[in-house]
Amino acid sequence: MPRLLIVKTGDSFPEVIEHHGDFEALFQRTLAHAGFEAEVFDARHEPLPELSGIDGLYITGSHAMVSDAEPWSEALKPWLLAARERNVAMFGVCYGHQLMAAAFGGVSDYHPAGRESGTHEVTLTESGHEDPLLGTLPAHFPVQLTHAQSVLEAPSGAVVLARNAHDANQALRYGPRQWSVQFHPEFTPEVMRAYLARQVDKLRDQGEDANALMRGVTATPEASSLLVRFARTVAKREGAVAETN
């Protein structure tokens, strides 16, 4: 069994935590259904752990903003760089996506078109079709999204795996085993609707109807599968390494 670590970068809304669980709990529940366990490290309050012995990292979403450069967030950047240098497998989600991109030389900041929320479709790029993690997904698939910031400039050398009309960098790969996505694979439709209920005024201000977006929320099984696909990819490699030792 690989040692998987969830890097917690924020808390969800109180009502989401009460009824569905916090960000890390959503990850753990999905992984547990497939027989995987994952520890949790709260990057805001705990010292950075040693990378030795860690097989795979998940970096969660957050209500913080990468461009605010909070000390705990900035401290993660060299740690993530060190993890990439060791070829530790990584999978960043939303804030984790933006943080990884910024750590590796890209630019993450407020999207000029505003917030993207609800269930929306993304499209695999040609590189996405060939990717070992995303490559077996359909060419177009729905995802759950809630973000005001985006990866505005991908790092040099990063490969764009998925995009849509709002965001050119919906999924990126930074190395052979390092991925990140702007969308939330861990979100259920109920969690997505709870987020939209919180954003009624903000969405109205940019000309969107939160109630219409709530009616458009659907399940996103292809996106959700990525959490377990990543764990299986890590487990497969660690098993192969163990066999050669």
Automatic annotation (TrEMBL):
UniProt name for this protein: Glutamine amidotransferase
UniProt xrefs under Pfam families: GATase (PF00117)
Originating organism: Halomonas icarae
Location of the Glutamine amidotransferase domain: 16-198
Annotated CDD domains: GATase1_1
Top-rank taxon, per record: Bacteria
Keywords: Glutamine amidotransferase, Transferase
InterPro entries per the UniProt record, alphabetical: ChyE-like, Class_I_gatase-like, GATASE
GO MF term set: transferase activity
GO cellular component: cytosol
